[in-house]
Amino acid sequence: MRYLVTNQSRIISDDTPFQLATIADLREYFKEHEFIGLDTETNGFSPYTKSLLLVQVGDEHNQFAIDDTVDIRELKDFFENPQYTFILHNAKFDLKFFFHRRIVIKHVFDTFLAEKLLWLGYPGGMHSLALKHCCEHYLGVSLDKTIRGNIIYEGASDAVIVYGCRDVEYLIPLMKAQLKALEEKDLLRAIKLENMFVVVLAYIEYCGVKLDVDKWKVKMDKDLKVFTDAIEALDNWVIENCGEKYVEKCVQQDLFNPTSTGPKCKVNWSSPKQVIELFEELGFNLWTRDKKTKEMKKSVEAKIIKPQKDVSPIAELYLTYKGCEKTCSTYGQNFIDNVNPISGRLHTNFSQLMDTGRLSSGGGEDKDIGKPMVNLQNLPNDAETRACFVAEPGNLWISADYKGQESVLIANIANDKAMIEEFLHGSGDMHSLVAKAIFPEEIDCSVAEIKEKFPLLRKKAKGPEFCFNYGGNDSTLVATYGFEPEVATMIYNNYMNQFSGVAEYQSWCRKEVMRVGYIEHCPEYGHKAFIYDYDQLMKEKATMSEPGFWDKYKLLKAQDPKHPSVEMVKHFFRRKADSEKQSINYRIQARGAICFKRFSIMFFQWLWKNDLLFKVKYCIPVHDEANIEAPAEIAEEVANKLVECMRKAGLLFCKTVPLDADVVIGDHWIH
Fold first, then answer.
1. Which H/E stretch holds residue 408?
2. CB neighbours of 93 closer than 8 A, spacing ≥ 6?
3. Which of 240, 264, 361, 405 could, after both became Cys, cross-link 375 (CB 3.0–4.6 A)?
4. For residue 403, which phi and psi values (nearest 5 degrees)?
């Protein structure tokens, strides 16, 4: 049965698809419940500028729609009752509207996140995560979503009330069906963690961050000047080094042109077609494989040009230009446009579960303002940019980040003796340790002395260190950093010989993913990124194992390089290589993400228990870093608790080498 809880007079007839009820009726019905379906209808996406039109709670038997004539804060104790677990689909959205009314719902089950976990690793679009699809998939129920677009105009009409009630009617049965699927894939621990963290993530989005708009505008002006200078430098190089094809001759003064002009560069640097033509003539190899289509194409992206800096001096100028172009387009007016007119803060979107388990930021459009949402996780780390993100008057900014999180995780997970020895009994300078390992002939001092005596080699070692730790090899080193092939091979062999624990661990990762068909992020929680085409890969492997296959393949490859059998072999080994690299990469990044989620949950719970929510704001999460805003008088206490939570979270994976954290307090983002 459907019920409407309202303070307005409403005529109910035999044709009305619901009955009237009171808050007391609602409380009475749910007093013995453990699980309650929950959903909201709003007229927009921001809790600061848009209204909460309807709140629906219910189970498969009865649903209650509460309209906006009822102050939902009257049910604060109901929603915060630890007896209840509220079932929502995409809980983050709804929780922010409750936060705005200072209602903190701590116990939730998010059917959207459950579905995401069950299909982690599959390409976007292969399996819909929408509530409508989930109900069809698990329950055989079709939800009519056509009325959704009319809610903003109709308000709490009869049709909208029925629509809202239908959404909560199936949430509990959906959760039960998903729990069975989660149990079959050993994902119950994973969904428990994600359900706890989604409350924190909703709070992060709700808090937002204060942007000093005046400072940002000054930064924008400087960025534009640097961008203009970069274009001028490119133009001048072409004028000085290229022929008439790319340079317009000097135009002399005459009757129709009263001022003389110098030669001009014809190349439009924002046109890939024109730049490709020039760079190919200069000797650059611009072929690369398109990630989506897997077809070969020409590109002048920075990652293609960077390894070829020795081809021509224009490469360095072009890379500077590309960096400036990205800065101006990505970190400009769009940030100002995203400042909320009511909160005065910048709010964006965070996706909770990438294939690695990490967060991502931005993407998509803020439909309330019709602007793209900004990414707060990839901001440049220069002091001028970071100084634009500030604490409110009376508050201080707290930045805390893990010390060398990735290296510490690798040392513990791979149980690498050389790394562990350096962390426990050396200086803990992993960059220097790697430099000594891969450049043994150049470096003739102790690890502790390398930073001072061989700073350039130490800097040069950072690329190979990052590359190898995440599953890259000598070929990756050539493609990414421009090393000569024989040098890259020597560096790779030196690295793996020195760090035998890492080599052994990575070998296991490569074998394991092709054995089971998924990448288990960590055994402690069981998150898995599934190899979406694993069954197909196993069929291809079986075909290639058939007697005589490789003899036939050699003939076909010579006669018809596009033959299905030839393409099958290419597909198998490309997907195998991708999956093996991901198997190494994901397990490290995922553990870092779980550390982040664990300490964020601990910290949030401490804030709640000490009545500090909405006083202490969680502003920007950046993988291994938390940025908090707190009243000045308690900033030190908050900072100490944050670091305590971070250390405690790290103990799950880092039992041999502890994972520590640094913290800085100021009036802006200092890290």
1. helix 405-414
2. 40, 45, 202
3. 361
4. -85, 110
CB-CB contact of 87 with 36 (8 Å): yes
Question: Is residue 35 a contact partner of residue 85, using CB atoms and an 8 Å limit?
Answer: yes
Find the largest Cα–Cα distance for the chain: 94
The values of phi and psi at residue 518, to 5°, are -155, 165
- Beta carbons of 183 and 176 less than 8 angstroms apart: no
Q: H/E element holding 566?
A: helix 564-609
CB 399 within 8 A of CB 670: yes
Question: Which candidate, 446, 386, 398, 452, places its Cα nearest to that of 422?
Answer: 446
What is d(CA 363, CA 357) in angstroms, rounded to the nearest whole number? 17
Q: Can you tell me the distance from the alpha carbon of 169 to that of 113, in angstroms, rounded to the nearest whole number?
A: 19
Give the span between the Cα atoms of 285 and 298, in whole angstroms: 8
Measured distance CA(375)–CA(215) in Å, rounded:
19
630, 613 contact by CB (below 8 A): no
Instruction: State how far the Cα of 195 lies from the Cα of 109, in Å rounded to an integer.
Output: 6
The span from the CA of 606 to the CA of 120, in Å, is 31
Enter the pTM of the model.
0.93
Identify whether the C-beta of residue 485 lies closer than 8 Å to the C-beta of residue 474: yes
Report the DSSP beta bridge partners of residue 620.
627
SS3 479: helix
Q: Which of the 8 DSSP states describes residue 2?
A: E
Q: What's the per-residue H, E or C state across 212-252?
A: CHHHHHHHHHHHHHHHHHHHHHHHHHHHHHCCCCCEECCEC
Spatial separation of the C-alpha atoms in residues 120 and 355, rounded to whole Å = 6
Q: What is the rounded distance in angstroms from the CA atom of residue 42 to the CA atom of residue 285?
A: 53
d(CA 329, CA 543): 49
Tens-place pLDDT, residues 499-553? 999 999 999 999 999 999 999 999 999 999 999 999 999 999 999 999 999 999 9
pLDDT above 70 for 258? no
Report the distance separating Cα 257 and Cα 291, nearest Å: 50
9, 59 in Cβ contact below 8 A?
A: no
Nearest to 620 by CA among 208, 339, 103, 10: 208
